[in-house]
Amino acid sequence: METLRFRHTTRGPAAGMIRSALVGVVGSGNLEVLLERMLQATECTVEIVTPVRGYDEVWEAVIADFVERASPGGLRISINDGGARPDTVMLRLLQGARTMEVGND
């Protein structure tokens, strides 16, 4: 298993007041994403545990794109990857951000 860590400064805090959300499933070609509101309003960290080595630059690009789109300030994001494609990663991250905005706590 490989662990990757990224830290970003965002434009502002993630929308909503939900404290945490879990989206996705751990399985082949998918991933589980845990989002927790526990950082400063313009800070976001992402930790990825993946069985697939050698895709650091792809992960970095997908996470940077997500941060630009969603401005997930205040969130610590943990990803348990099952070999998901980049489009699936982005889908789950956006699903998690939306759940933090409108989901039930």
TrEMBL record:
> Its domain of life?
Bacteria
The lineage, from the top, is: Bacteria, Pseudomonadati, Pseudomonadota, Alphaproteobacteria, Hyphomicrobiales
Q: Where in the cell is it found?
A: Cytoplasm
**What Pfam families does the entry give?**
ACP (PF06857)
Keywords, A to Z?
Answer: Cytoplasm, Phosphoprotein
Name the chain's protein: Malonate decarboxylase acyl carrier protein
Q: How is it modified after translation?
A: Covalently binds the prosthetic group of malonate decarboxylase.
For this record, an example GO cellular component is: cytoplasm
Q: Which InterPro entries match?
A: Mal_deCO2ase/Cit_lyase_ACP (IPR023439), Malonate_deCO2ase_dsu (IPR009662)
Q: Where, per the database record, does this protein carry O-(phosphoribosyl dephospho-coenzyme A)serine? A: S28
Q: Which residues form a coiled coil?
A: none
